[in-house]
Amino acid sequence: MKQPNNQTNRDKTIALYPHISREDKIGDESNSIVNQKKLLTSVAKKMGFTNLLYFVDDGISGNNRDRKEFNRMLAELEKGYIGAVMVKDLSRFARDHIFADTLIEEFFPEHNIRLISISENLDTAEGEDEFTPFRNLMSEWYCRDISKKRRLTNVVKGNAGEPLSPPPYGYKKDPDNSKRWIVDDEPAAIVRRIYRMTLEGFGTEQIAAELDRENVLTPMNYWYSQGLPRGGLKNTERTNRWVHSTVTKILSLQEYCGDVINFKTYSKSYKLKKRIPNSEENMAIFKDVHEAIISRADWERVQAKRELRTRKKVSRDGVKNIFSGLLVCADCGHTLNFHINSGNADITYFNCRNYKGNSRGTCETTHYIRVDFLEQVVLGEIRRLMKYVTKHSEDFIRAAIGSAQQTVEQNRQQMQKELRTLEARDRELDKLFSLMYEDNSKGKIDDERFGRMSRQYTDEQRTIAEKIKELRAELDTQSVQSYTAESFITALRKYGRTKKLTQYMLNELIEKIEVFQAEKIDGVWQQRLRIHYHGLGSISIPEQLAIPNCEVNMNTRKGVYVAYSPTTA
Q1: pLDDT tens, position by position, 280-322
Q2: Average pLDDT in the 254-267 region?
Q3: Are the folds of 7-154 and 173-308 the same?
Q4: Which CATH class name applies to 7-154?
Q5: Amino acid 308: pLDDT
Q6: Contact 143, 23 (CB under 8 A)
Q7: What is the 3-state secondary structure (H, E, C) of 427-496?
Q8: Are 473 and 266 in contact (CB under 8 A)?
Q9: Is 454 exposed, middle or buried (0-12, 13-18, 19+ CB in 10 A)?
Q10: Sheet holding 348-352: strands in order across?
Q11: Selected residue with higher pLDDT from 93 and 184
């Protein structure tokens, strides 16, 4: 951009700022960028300006100070070679009256810049206009009113099940009905692949790197390639720069199950653009509205895997352990950590991360278990289960449905017990606070101690109140898990002839494995395990069916033989 140096050229140079905001797009055509340009150009030339510089913002709210071209114009004004700024009306300039007043009353006079607004017949070269601050305030009120109306409209639409956000990666708007989403085949295939790789044990960084190597377009750049610009930054240097956060975002979207979820975020004010995550109770969730890309069972398994994930250590050959995140201590409930024997890398094992032998641990025993022992036991139990399903499918379905209902009931009872404990503690704190207040009023407790203890009790009650609210919400909405016995059988039959466990297989079939401390019974060390299958809990195979038990007896360390002992109780 040529920058005139002398005063004469500066007086002939003007910045023209056509601007249209989102709220103006529903207005008449006179507000369009094209018509604003024509008007500003015509008036500027009639006033004798010969060097016309254009700064254009299209579709950005006037209440937003972070407008790219507007800020570029301010930066150029500071350089001193532009003598005037022209807008169609003051609402084009800014709809934040404090910001607008500061610019007009301080910034422009300081840099000797003339402001011209055509509609208001304003020209600061002719002197101050005492009505300008009122006009700026009215512009802001207009913006506030539009924002309020838009919010009310969104509340009505959102509660009626109409999607309030653009379709996520993998979907597109139905050409025949813009309120409906349909599957977009090309990106939907990538979404399915990301979920499949996750269930196979790949991490988000690995998935991103693989998509990166194959030059798969990122969601943002795919939308741009289809002529569908979205909010956010486009990577102009590389169109395949996948990062783990993009994969994580895709793995978190419940919309892939076919659901519409409205009011996921909110803003505290129309002036604040930051979106704040909403609590689930304030969202509007509509299930099975559009075609699912990911089955609900797979989506739930992925969420469970992400919740239970632990930092997975790697063996010397670079292989991650397939049991990481699945093993929990039967006594304290903490997850078990994966270890590699420092003296022999071929020996890998797990133990309780809460073992008191470690720093700050409270669990009494290590719950040590070898990985090779685990592999034989789990593979053997899956084969037993396959025989149960193959030979006695109807019996299995009846037992599985009962097990699923029992699991749900056990969870419900556990939550109710925890709720009762928390409510009792809440009442106890009320009594303690009342007694403490009485002691303080009688002089038995000084003010400093009273203040310290009251803050402590208040913080504890606040935490308890939040937990009680969560538990009550879970109990109100609790239902039988969507993962049915039939879907489990379908998944199980895929592994009828398997000879080796895989990450995907474990994630598809098993929710968790409880590991007990090995015990010496009748002179033999026995290792008890309880396997919980997805949606079904632990399953006991009736003895009368004559399906042989899984027998594993292994020399695990220093001549100590350990035998597997199953448990479902």
Answers
A1: 677 778 888 889 999 988 888 888 777 655 444 444 444 568 8
A2: 82
A3: no
A4: alpha beta
A5: 58
A6: yes
A7: HHHHHHHHHHHHHHHCCCCCHHHHHHHHHHHHHHHHHHHHHHHHHHHHHHHCCCCCCCHHHHHHHHHCCC
A8: no
A9: middle
A10: 336-340, 348-352, 369-370
A11: 184
**77-81, 145-149, 154-158, 342-346: least confident range:** 145-149
Burial class from Cβ neighbours inside 10 Å (0-12, 13-18, 19+) for residue 139 reads buried
CA neighbor of 112 nearest in space, from 154, 84, 88, 90: 84
Confidence at residue 192, expressed as pLDDT on a 0 to 100 scale:
94
Q: Would you state the structure tokens that stand for residue 207, as one six-digit string?
A: 């998935």
The single-letter DSSP state of residue 127 is -
Nearest to 92 by CA among 71, 68, 117: 117
Q: Which residues contact 497 (CB under 8 A, 6 or more apart)?
A: none
Dist CA 366 CA 57 (whole Å)? 64
Which uninterrupted H or E stretch holds 148?
A: helix 132-159
pLDDT at residue 479 in the model:
46
Quote the tokens at residue 54: 């254009």
Q: How confident is the model at residue 184 (pLDDT cuts 50, 70, 90)?
A: very high
Q: What's the CA gap between 71 and 66, in Å, rounded? A: 7
Region of poorest pLDDT, from 166-170, 204-208, 265-269, 539-543? 265-269
The residue length of the chain stands at 569
* pLDDT 10s digits, 368-390: 999 999 999 999 888 888 888 88
CB 510 within 8 A of CB 495: no
Q: Cα 406–412–416 angle (5° rounding)?
A: 145
Q: Which residues contact 110 (CB under 8 A, 6 or more apart)?
A: none
pTM of the model: 0.43
Instruction: Using CA atoms of 77, 80, 82, 84 in order, give the dihedral in degrees to the nearest 10.
Output: 70
Residue with tokens 């006009």: 135
Residues 391 and 201: their CA atoms lie apart, in Å, by 31
Please answer whether residues 299 and 485 qualify as being in contact, where contact means their C-beta atoms are separated by less than 8 angstroms: no
Count CB-CB contacts under 10 A for residue 304: 15
Count of beta carbons in the 10 Å neighbourhood of residue 18: 25
Q: Dihedral sign for Cα 33, 39, 45, 49, please.
A: negative
Distance CA 84, CA 89 (A): 15
Q: Which CATH architecture has domain 173-308?
A: Alpha-Beta Complex (3.90)
Task: Name the pairing type of β-strands 276-277 and 265-266.
Answer: antiparallel
Strand ranges in 156-225 using DSSP code E only, listed in sequence order: 171-174, 177-183
What is the pLDDT at residue 569? Answer: 61
Query: Tokens 């466990």 identify what position?
Result: 501
The DSSP-derived string for 201-239 is: T--HHHHHHHHHHTTPPPHHHHHHHTT---SS---SS-S
- pLDDT value for 412: 75
Q: Which residues contact 339 (CB under 8 A, 6 or more apart)?
A: 313, 348, 349, 350, 351
Dihedral pair phi/psi, residue 276, rounded to 5°? -110, 130
Helix pair 185-199, 244-252: axis angle to 10 deg: 90
Q: Where are the domains of the chain?
A: 7-154, 173-308, 327-393+487-566, 395-477
Nearest to 261 by CA among 184, 177, 171: 171
For residues 175 and 506, what is the distance between their CA atoms, to the nearest angstrom?
41
pLDDT for 354 beyond 60:
yes
